[in-house]
Amino acid sequence: MKKAMKNREVISCIVVRHQIYAGTCGIDGHAYILSKNDVDGDTRGAKACAPRLWENAAEAQKWINEREGEIYVTRSGEAGRPDYWIVPEYAAAVLQSRSDDGSLYDWPEAIDGCDDGACGQCDACVEWMADQDDEYLKSVQIKEIER
Ligand SMILES: [Zn+2]
Fold it and tell me: In terms of CB atoms within 10 Å, which of 33, 108, 136, 138 comes out highest?
């Protein structure tokens, strides 16, 4: 109960991860944070890319519940409804920092599929970074929410 109370005070954003069939191209199976444009159709300049924030995790959960009560039309290559994860607002800042400065990732000596160890720029490295972001978002996911 105490934890749920604490969660309610956290300003949250929602992560979407699409369920895709293996080998699908054209749709990304990586997690992403919903933007104002995604939710509100706010397409005005840089604001459109800013994370859409909810006052707390319970409000975010309410939005998810509404989506899950609607008919969902899968896109080409999509295997079902997306997963929705609620994460604290700071997660968006962490992802933005990593995007601005790739050295913030905890790079191994070598990335599978990279011809140059871990160049940080080839497809294999970009995929590795996206996987790291998925793992990070999953690790900070807020799970205990009063419905
Ligand atoms: Zn590389």
Answer: 33
Q: How far is the CA of 123 from the centre of ligand 1 (A)?
A: 7
Please tell me the total number of residues recorded for the chain in this structure: 147
Q: What percent of the chain has pLDDT over 70?
A: 90
CB 100 within 8 Å of CB 78: no
Calculated CA dihedral for residues 89, 92, 98, 100, nearest 10 degrees: -120
Give phi and psi for 49, each to the nearest 5. -85, -10
* pLDDT class of 143 with cuts at 50, 70, 90: confident
Q: CA 41 from chain center: how many Å?
A: 18
pLDDT in tens, 86-106: 999 999 999 999 999 999 999
Q: Which residues pair with 32 in a beta bridge?
A: 16
Report d(CA 31, CA 36) in Å as an integer: 16
pTM of the model: 0.84
C-alpha of residue 137 to centroid of ligand 1, in Å? 23
The protein residues having their C-beta less than 5 angstroms from ligand 1 (an ion) are 114, 119, 122, 125
* CA 124 to ligand 1 center in whole angstroms: 6
